[in-house]
Amino acid sequence: MGKNDDSKLFAFLGIFLTIIGWLIVYLTRKNDKYAMHYAKQGLVLFIGFVIVGVFSWVPIIGWILGPLLSIALFVLWIIGIVYSLSDEMKEIPLVGALAKNF
Fold first, then answer.
1. Which ranges in the chain belong to alpha helices (H)?
2. I want to staple 42 with a disulfide (CB 3.0 to 4.6 A). Which of 18, 32, 68, 91 is the partner?
3. How many domains is the chain built from?
């Protein structure tokens, strides 16, 4: 049972464009569970990138951990992109549990 192409496209946009993608999906496909599932995870990733960006300004600890956390978020983002095209509602590790709260 595959998702229709529109659902997959909007799921991809939701995760790929993070905050803009979430807004697009929310405004156009709010009732599409598949697209919203990935759009919410994209929103959580965006929030994570913002937090890491701010944290990176903290002397020494932020300078060391900031790049490492950015790489981890980037890897999670790539995983989300792959998952969004998989026809299955998979949770991105760490991100999926937080996204359920939105």
1. 5-16, 18-28, 33-55, 61-84, 95-99
2. 18
3. 1
